[in-house]
Amino acid sequence: MQGGNWVHSKSMKGRRAPMRLATMIAMIGLIVALFVSQSTITVPGRFAFPGRRKLQSKSAKQPQRKKILYIVTALNEYNSGTRNTEKGSDRLQLTLIPVVSEGIRTMVDAGYDVDLYLICHFTLLPEREALVRRALPDSVGLEVWNDAAPFAYDTAQNPFTKLRYDILHLARQHRFVIKDKLLDYDVFVNFEDDMLITAEHVHHFIRVTDELERLYEQAPEDPPSYIVSHTDAIQNYHGVMTKGQLRRTIPGFIRVEVLLDEQNYPAQTDTGPVPLDLQFTEGRQQVDPTICCHVHKETTSAHIPESPTADQLMLWETNIFPLGVRKMPDDSWLHWVLTQRGPAQNNLNISDVIGDYWSNRNDDYWPKAKRPKPLEYKYINNQGGWMATRDQLWRWHTDICAGGFLPPYEAPHYRFDGLDMRNVEWYSGGMQLSTVRHACNMQRIISLDTEGFSRSLIYHTANNKQRQLASKSESSFVKANTLLGQLNTIKKRAENDLLANP
Asked: Could you name the domain of life of the organism this protein comes from (predicted)?
């Protein structure tokens, strides 16, 4: 990568201007220079770098604006025709630019300072880069890493004699960017180029993270005295949480699409044995689609509608069967949460195990059925990305994730300088965070109130899974309202069991 400023000078022609005019020009130039020094410095065809920023007061009236680095990894500039895309269509203009600029504008409007970093498996020509720049607010800096896929030996051949572009590990390259810029930003947002991430998502993530940190600071080291075994810990779904549990807990997300043609590509018609209950304390409620999935008119296209309804939101990477719920500590505004799949509990200390109330705990919805293993892929909720604060990243890298979260990638947890075989989602979709093998084994949670649940849904704007996986629609495609209603049923059942057996 390279970057920097260049100066293009022109020689003055004609007669010397009078001294007064020269002085006025100099003063105007000084004012312009001072203005530019506080703005984003943009060099045509090169990187855009944030200029020098003023130190801000830490008073309550002027809270410091959080700085976000939004990283987007793009494999193709034009669609390849796989995964139900139209071969040769302009992915940059039809997907990346409208989706990313839509999200960034909400962040800027909400008061965040945002810069965009594009990691591309192609060369983004200057005229194409200009299209990206024009779609972004003026305050947003832009950097581009062209041809970013690493060179690696083809490990399928022995001995290793063939070098190739390792497209699989393009998904890893954002970690090098984050390591370089860790001290420059407060929040890092890393998602695929078709994921719509808005200020609502960032704000909710930060709010939940702050609450978990508050609970951590006041939490005990040891679990309650009635928890004496792993079985006790796994079955326990309420009460005070230990520091070990809370340090492993992070906010989670669920990807959704908007059903575009329910006649030909419907969601499941048989929702299973768990009843839907959309009656909450505040009355009957449903998912709020405006948070994740409403877009401005300029962002719309044939596959991105402007204002989808709640009943059109569909997820495909989990359902109620493997999921559980947990009651957070009594003084937390989080109240009840969904525990997403992924982490293994068996090898943890008892004080670190995060138990929950499984949907089939009473063995009546699915008699004699066993709970799917945490790593069963069809239930694991690939998020299409992840976000983190600077403090979280440092904790993950130094304390939680086996082998560290950022480079260098070294044995025994990484082989071949981190170019060993791992699926794309391990890096890009955050599966490293929530799985156990050479990973972080953290527990993702999602609030079960309708507002928090809605803020945890993120929009896969390609809207192609409903066609790509059409043969599995009966078992895989779950409407967001269906899952919310079923989770509410399980939560109420857990509450009743807790009242009967406090």
From this structure: Eukaryota
